[in-house]
Amino acid sequence: MSLQRPTRNTESGAILLLVMMLMISLFGLGITALWLTSGTMQVGTNVNQRTQALYCAEAGIERARAALNSLPAPNITTLLKGSGDAADDVPSTLDASGNPVGVGAILLDGTTVLKAVAFPPTSFKRNTGTATAPVSATMGTYTVWIRNDTAECRQGNYLNDANGSVRIRSRGLAPDNLTTVVLEVAMGGAPGSGGTSTTTSFVPVLCNSGKNSCDDNTSTVSGVVVN
Prior knowledge:
Elements: H1 14-68, H2 76-81, E1 105-106, E2 108-109, E3 112-113, E4 117-119, E5 140-148, H3 150-153, E6 166-173, E7 180-189, E8 202-205, E9 220-221, E10 224-225
Antiparallel strand pairs: 1-5, 2-3, 4-5, 5-6, 6-7, 7-8, 9-10
């Protein structure tokens, strides 16, 4: 009687290997999805913070326009000199490109120093959300500076406004205290108003954002800068 040698199963463990590979693939897909979701949420958060900082900066510009249009008319020369606040950055010289060194003096709205002003004010009664999804009572803060226009600064006239044109710089700071948006506009007399520093006809002249985006040497049409 002869005994047959048992045949070796060459497929032993193949199913286990396939299952392990499938599990590793699913794990990798899960990690990738989690990473993409986290990145999308971070992008959304950053956009939200920047949007709130932009709203604050725009509120600062509107506050400045209202202050310059108030009655009695503010003394522009006094505003240009600043109040001695630590955040004052009144220019007194030019850089190599002929632009003023310094963003200006902190703007005074009557007796209020427009520095780190919360927006919106409490009177807006902004929704504070719920315990699980709180919403900040404010969108952030804004700080506003005023300086003489670049054309006059280039003539060495930093503190005395002679042509009724000034530069307003507003910086909005988001609730994270990190995200900022800076807007800068030229404000001067309305077309045909004469535009002296004693008139109250200040209207914004739109400029690109930036410290030295435009000045009196830029062409204007109906009060809007043409770059």
